[in-house]
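tryptophan--tRNA ligase
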Amino acid sequence: MASIIKKVSRRASHVIVSGIQPTGSLHIGNYLGFVKNFVKLQDSNTEAEKFLFVADLHSNSVKPKHENFRYQCRKLVASLIACGVNPSDTLLFYQSQVPEHAELAWHLGSVVTINRLSKLPQFREKSNEDLDGVSPNLLTYPVLQAADILLYKCTKIPVGEDQVMHVNLTFHIIEVLKGLFKKQCFPKPELILSRSPRIKSLSDPAKKMSKSDPNQHAAVFLDDSEAQVLKKVKRAMTDSTGEKVRYDRENRPGVCNLLEIVAELEEKTVEDVAQECSGLDSLGLKLRLAELINETFRPIQRRMKEIEEDEQYLDTVLVRNAEIARETAVNTLKEFKEIIGYDQPQVYFNKLQGSG
């Protein structure tokens, strides 16, 4: 395997932080909407510090996971590396292996009201469905998200449109702390909004593609076989007009969804792709898309298999990267606790030992 880690530079001009939940296999919407964009960000910001964590604490905001959880976490790490995340350039680690995430979230929670948290979209949506089934962790999920960002003094954060309101809570916390302590406790990061369209379900183009969709044909997953990809794409909802392909979001949403996936994979505008496909019917478009997905996923799947089989490599990446991430996290938390007035005898003891 290639070099595993690179020592974090304390003089980096930017700090990029992001996380992804280990809630099942990555689908093509995750790949195009997050993973591919993060890899581009990684490769174009060579002088920046990059932190990418598997958000295993966030995954337990509803119910504790069981025996498959460990497998899902490791598979996600293997998938990310196979897609181009470079653990010698980006610190890739488990959120739960850096306990300062949870401790900072606890401190930040004291400056956020329940009223503000209860108005955020994720909690509002879930609580409307079944309030008795909602845990306090779901309510405070955005506070942990703020801690994830601030713990590494993030200056740039890649984010999808559906998470902007949650990230705005981080900005609110930064301003509240500044007002309370009369100093800038944390930098305010710049949002890097994903320009990729939100890939829709293959079975219902009115819905976002989701790992949890009960319809097994609604999403194409990174580990699907080529036959499965072809079957799912051929069954994708389009329309029965018999017309040639054209981009018409209002009247032909299914066709548009497929065109947008092709455009993202080929890194073209959807208008150019629609023009190229204007001589095809819906089946022709589906066949082109299925082949394109398989061409894209083929080398990724080979690399995933190699990585998953090398348990020692995965362990080394996760342990060493968490250790390095924790160096930054410990320092940030120590500085913040000093600002808010905590007695930290170990800090002063270490200083005395050093001066002796």
